[in-house]
Amino acid sequence: MHEDDEIPIETATLPLDGWHRARGGRMVEFAGYWMPIQYEGIMAEHLWTRENAGLFDVSHMGQLALSGEGVAAALETLVPGDISALKPGRMRYSLLLGEDGGILDDLMITNEGDQIGIVANGAVKWDDIAHLRENLPDPITLNHKDDHGLLALQGPKAVTALSRLVPEAAGLVFMQAATATWNGHAIALSRSGYTGEDGFEISLPNAALESFADTLCAMEEVKPIGLGARDSLRLEAGLPLYGHDLDETTDPVEGDLAFAISKRRREDGGFPGAARILGHLADGSPRKRVGLLVDGKMPVREGAKLFDGNTEIGVVTSGGFAPSVGAPIAMGYVPAGLSEPGTALAAEVRGKRVACTVAAMPFIPHRYVRKQGA
Amino acid sequence: MPRYYTEEHEWIDVDGDVATVGITDFAQGQLGDIVFVEVPDTGAELSQGGDAAVVESVKAASDVYAPVDGTVTEGNAQLEEDPALVNSDPEGEGWFFRMTLADKSQLDGLMDAKAYKAFCDAL
């Protein structure tokens, strides 16, 4: 190899790198960072989160803030959500769309009062920043909050645990956000996450991360959970992973994310790829993301081809053993005519055909807290 | 009964002309929770270093290689029902398959327990 062949990009470390290692986290490279894939084991961590509360370090994700006159309307030229109607303290799932309506990233967008907060996927956050900067008017300020980490506390006991430190947590419902103070640090929290469970995401200054994580993990309800369980939890919840289940060739209707196209935007358009996307909304898309229940025990993973009889009709985009289901599950893309739950298909694994059935998602019911006192 | 180890973390117990093969405790610890094992069919011809079996953890599928040349005489049917045996007893009940030895001299190139431990410690 010649010295000038390539510039090696060094894998970055998270602010909690030492904390993960001290707790026995097995570190792997993900999205350009060293991240813990597991501590005691993916299966145990997955089941713990469904029953108790799991603490995930998702500080690799991009935390952005947009501000300036007309920021909501400006952002609406790039995403299909009704950002103007988003009230302070409310958030929604949205999609950054390319010119042809393909998905550049999936995002959480929050009205933080004086600014719009965005959480972007770690693997594409630099591309997102470049895209936003290039396409938003100059007076809009884009701030990358890289001096903040992001923790997710997920599971049915998350509210009990977090409320001890941040009483405001208990007052929120799903997709609501607030600011608070913990030990003199300004923090932001939202009742959201990507496991299908009730839970919170908490943004803190880097300097506060370790003591906050330590304090939570000292509680009997809370254990640190790695990326491996995060992946199996979101798969069971039917939630797509960008770069696997969604990419720039996929539009929101194909990705089964039509809910992210707000009513007003369906009527008015004005987002990238509106012609294609509104056409797919009206007439259906030729292909669609579906869930798959797999017969037997052999996992069917990303890249497995899908067959209807002897005809190759699609591909699996993520899959694996689902600890709470107790069987392998997958998601993938199939033609619209084969997307009805109950449709019998087959996946090819190492040259063998495995029977699978199109299934409604989520595989494990969501347990979001949508109303106070409910 | 002598036991040998490969750099790919398989173990092989030799008993006359027949051998039993599995993956080491170190390997199962690295893989994590095992959810599926595909053992070779009886009669399959294996060659040293070639694919012999597949072991799948929650996260990923990994190949298990043949430590020597030979013919498969039996796969461990218990692993179909209970793949977690590979986690709980990797170097006992969690064996993968039995095989004949086509060329016993190949064993000379493998490690003994002491050498394998030193190999793992250096990883």
Task: Give a verbal description of the structure.
In chain A, the strands form four sheets. Chain A has a six-stranded mixed β-sheet. In chain A, 48% of the residues are buried. Chain A contains nine helices and 20 strands. In chain A, strand 19 and strand 20 form a beta hairpin. The mean pLDDT of chain A is 96. In chain A, helix 2 crosses helix 7. With 374 residues, chain A is α+β, with helices and mostly antiparallel strands. Chain B is of the alpha+beta class. Chain B is built from four helices and nine strands; from the N terminus they run E-E-E-H-E-E-E-E-E-H-H-E-H. Chain B is globular and about 35 Å long. Chains A and B meet through helix 2 and helix 7 of A and strand 4 and strand 6 of B.
What is the gist of this entry?
Chain A has 374 residues and is α+β, with helices and mostly antiparallel strands.
Instruction: Tell the overall outline of chain A.
Output: globular
What Rg of chain A, in angstroms, do the CA atoms define? 21 Å
Give the ordered list of helices and strands of chain A.
EHEEHEEHEEEHEEHEEEHEHHHEEEEEE
Beta strand % of chain A: 25-35%
Q: Give the helices and strands of chain B as they follow along the chain.
A: EEEHEEEEEHHEH
What is the largest interface, and how many residues per chain? A-B, 19 and 14 residues
Biggest pleated-sheet summary of chain A: 6 strands, mixed
Number of strands of chain A: 20
How far apart, in Å, are the first and last alpha carbons of chain A? 62 Å
The major β-sheet of chain B equals: 6 strands, antiparallel
Count all strands of chain B and give the number: 9
Mean pLDDT over the full residue set of chain A: 96
Classification by helices and strands of chain A: alpha+beta
**Shape summary of chain B:** globular
Low-confidence spans of chain B: pLDDT under 50, at least 5 residues?
Answer: none
Structural class of chain B: alpha+beta
On the 0-100 scale, what is the average pLDDT of chain B?
95
